[in-house]
Amino acid sequence: MLARGVLICTRSLDLVAILWHDSGQPLTPISLVFRICKTIELESGHLLSKHPGNCHFPHGHTRSVELVFCAQETDANDMVLDFKAIKEMMSEFLSSFDHALCMNTHDANYETFSNIYGDRIIPFEGQDPTSERMAQRVYLYAKDALVRASAGELTYPVRSCVELDRVRVWETSSSWAEYSE
């Protein structure tokens, strides 16, 4: 018995099929998964209180946030879900990070920054706002937003079979952190 794997990629989705070839029998799909990714860019800052180097000073990044969703089948429009649905689910939440400073609530200057800049300071309760923690926060929000969206709370329909696969936060063009469950 021979096992063969096939990977078919297009710009808008990944279709992964694992196929068997069993003594002349036709190739049969074992697993099909469609994935889509929406990338949203934002300008945000942070300071890492626990960092031993320059990152403990306030600094900013042009971040790219990738949200990857998947489903076993496409919908009637041949989509996992409409990219506009992702934007509708996430834009207000991610906009709150735009030109804001993320801070550990245990940082000695947190209260001062919070009093001066108000809602432009994004609190990370007892944690440094690393890219790893940002990816986790975005993932958890997106997971809840997906539940609300599949309950019909959006303009664009989202099927209940759609799952959030992972969130990746790019801190620079060569460095990212990813979170999934």
Structure in a nutshell:
By secondary structure, this protein is an alpha+beta fold. It is built from 3 helices and 8 strands. It has one domain (37-179): Tetrahydropterin Synthase, Chain A, CATH 3.30.479.10.
How would you characterize this protein structure?
- With 181 residues, this protein is an alpha+beta fold.
- It has a single domain, classed as Tetrahydropterin Synthase, Chain A, CATH 3.30.479.
- Helix content is 24%, strand content 39%.
- Strands 1, 2, 3, 4, 5, 6, 7 and 8 form an eight-stranded mixed β-sheet that branches.
- Helix 1 crosses helix 3.
- The longest helix is centred in the C-terminal third of the chain and has 23 residues.
Mean pLDDT across the residues is: 87
CATH top-level class? Alpha Beta
The description of the largest β-sheet is: 8 strands, mixed
| Low-confidence region ranges | 1-21
**Oligomerization category of the chains in this entry:** single chain
Shape: elongated
CATH topology: Tetrahydropterin Synthase, Chain A
Q: From the helix content, strand content and strand pairing, which structural class follows?
A: alpha+beta
Rg for CA atoms: 20 Å
Report the span from N to C terminus: 34 Å
Tally of helical runs: 3
Strand % is: 35-45%
Helix share of residues? Answer: 10-25%
Secondary-structure element pattern, one letter each = EEEEHEHEHEE
CATH architectural name: 2-Layer Sandwich
**Can you count the beta strands?**
8
Q: Any idea how many domains? A: 1
CATH superfamily: 6-pyruvoyl tetrahydropterin synthase/QueD
